[in-house]
User: What shape does this take?
Amino acid sequence: MSIKAIIFDMDGVIFDSERLILDCWIKVAKKYGIDDIEQTCRACIGINRQATEATFYRRYGENFDYDKYRHEAADMFFASLENGILPIKTGVRELLDFIEKSNIPAAIASSTKAEIVTRELRDAGLLDHFYGIVGGDMVQNSKPAPDIFLLAAEKLGVKPEECLVIEDSHNGIRAAANANMHSIMVPDLLPPTDEMRELSDKVLDTLLDVKEYIRKCL
Assistant: This one.
């Protein structure tokens, strides 16, 4: 595996945010009697806001007050953060320091809006580790389409097949495969499946394991 750049997803990979988001939606769902919210939220992992909204309407009908519930869940989410900073996943700083010392450029390709991605990385003191930021609002098609990863590769100035994607979501791994990129799945809320093991180069438990895997590949 010849890797010239690494592309990270953000939520569930850099930040331990997916679980917090899910917990907030569960509280909102309990308050308003919304059924099967955990299953619905899991179906939205890795996709952008437009695709998420479409998923909610498809499951609950066109009269579903998505904006109201989303705002309430978001308020709970931000109120739960310590000093407004998202909790960082195990191994993030070690991996980013390692690839920086190895002169491997990195980018973020997140389904979250680019403005929010930039702010959250800056608040956590991680922004300077990334040469490029691509948000879900910068591409037409959400994961599992390859658009977001292809744009990240373009920003990094490398060919898709020279990129390694670090993802936690099924749609993210599918998007990496559709972009003809190498990928590693580090599971968060979604367990690896046979499809994920087939599409990815490796399934690893933590970013510390990713660091050691990359070290051996260099």
Observations:
- The mean pLDDT is 96.
- The longest strand covers residues 163-167.
- The two ends are 9 Å apart (CA to CA).
